[in-house]
Amino acid sequence: MITLPLAIELEVAGLKHKPEDGDLYWIEEAGTICIVNSGIVPEDGDYWLPSLDQLLAEIESRGWNWWISGWEDGPPDICPSRYYCHISKDSASWSVYGGTTSEDAAAKALLEILKEGVKQ
Questions:
Q1: Long-range Cβ contacts of 84-88 (<8 Å, 24+ apart)
Q2: Using CA atoms, how far apart are residues 55 and 71, in angstroms rounded to an integer?
Q3: What tens digit of pLDDT does each residue of 30-49 get?
Q4: pTM of the entire structure?
Q5: If you write DSSP's letter for every residue of 29-50 in order, what string do you get?
Q6: What is the tally of helices (H) and strands (E) in the chain?
Q7: Starting from the edge strand earliest in sequence, which strands make up the sheet with 32-35, in order?
Q8: Do 79 and 99 contact (CB within 8 A), yes or no?
Q9: Residue 17's Cα: distance from chain center in Å?
Q10: Which segments within the chain are labelled E, that is strand?
């Protein structure tokens, strides 16, 4: 699951999502994470917490190729980001974004795409 600050940044950068059953949202009024279903409907001020599959689908929908890599056993002083999302438009040059989870790495890549595009 991505962090709440990344979820907020993605929304501010323009990521739109129509809630579907099973989606995770930070529900501000309750101060907790909830699963969207017929009884729970997100409102303004609530934040979508997209899954890795949803993040990667958003990257693909904007015309980018991706792959995820990780180094789970790497020493933290050498490798503070344990997971990486590699993105490319042409598969010749890649931009890389790191995170402590694969979801955070993909969210950072998508955020860069949404904010200003990635220079290749």
A1: 85/59, 85/109, 87/59, 87/113, 87/118, 88/64, 88/120
A2: 20
A3: 899 999 887 778 888 899 99
A4: 0.86
A5: TTTEEEE-BTTB---TT-EE--
A6: 3, 6
A7: 32-35, 24-27, 47-48
A8: no
A9: 13
A10: 24-27, 32-35, 47-48, 65-70, 83-88, 95-99
Ramachandran category for residue 39: left, alpha or beta (phi over 0 → left; psi -120 to 50 → alpha): alpha
Q: What is the mean pLDDT of residues 55-63?
A: 95
How many CB atoms sit inside 10 A of residue 82's CB? 19
Question: CA-CA distance, 112 to 23, in Å (whole number)?
Answer: 23
Name the token pair of 95.
Answer: 């931009």
Residues, the chain: 120
List the domain boundaries for the chain.
4-115
4-115 maps to CATH 3.30.2120: yes
